[in-house]
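User: Patatin. Structure?
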Amino acid sequence: MLLGHGGLLASRSLGLARGATLPYPRQRRQLSGSGGGPLDRLGDLVRARVGIKEDDGMYGTGLGEGPGLSEGSPLLNWNLEEIKTSPGLGFGFSAGGLLFPYFVGNAVALKRLGLVNSETVFAGSSAGSLISACLVCDLEADELMDNLLRMYRQLREEGTIGNVRSVVETYAHMVFPEDVHVLASGRLNVSVVQCSTRKPFLRSVYVNEFESKDDLVQALLTSSHVPLYMNTRVTSTFRGQTCVDGGLGENFIPRPPCEEPVTICCFPDLPFECDIAPGKYSECPISMSRMLQYAALPPQEEKIIELFEMGCTDVLDWATHTTRGGGQGQPS
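Assistant: Predicted structure:
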């Protein structure tokens, strides 16, 4: 359903070789702690291998203590069906655990192709909600990769079980701007699953308005709450509701509320329809069993780079396939 976006994609130079750049100059923010250490050098290697320039950017509490709404706060949308459909392209990112580097590669490529702007809408489950938030608030690719490498190193050193939530929360507050909730409201649709003692016991819902930065961060953490993994609890509490990971319901690969939705999954060979995924247009270099391992346990830095590059490549493959098809429909 790319509705004539074949011409747009062609005009964005999709025939160019992988790694070629489409410049979109932005003012670069100074990275804290940037120095010449191994992580910085690794970040330079990543940027060099995929052609990211120095001025490039991407458009981008404990369990049971989720914040409530302040008195007099506006009614918040929970159901995607009630959300107005936006014109143009939008992107939905699947659940993915610690396969987040793949999504970072997707995001860099989508931005480089000029397919993300200040009005693009997103939907995300679990890790997919995190990358969607990064795109909404225009985090720069180098800043995001540097912090990602540091976060995964910390998880490798400290362990994951029962520790992931606090580490992710710390980095989320560190990298997101103070007005992220303003930037995200109306554009970011975070999938969570509400739990109930009555039927339906599990109900997939969306949050797309946010009262504060912490309210948004808590929504992302709730969407990412894999039972017994994030902090050893089965459920999370968000806005007074008992919830679990947004990918555990029907929105494992959420569809954004727009005229031309593009869905992205970080796992290969799943029985779900999606537009972009490992192995969709070319052979996936990593087995499904290994991808599942990386989703649960933080991969080493060389594998982070490989996942990142694979995410870039898969977007280019999708875009090239769509362009060659004349833009008459999304890749099947």
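The beta strands are 86-93, 121-125, 188-195, 202-207, 236-238, 241-244, 258-264. The mean pLDDT is 78.
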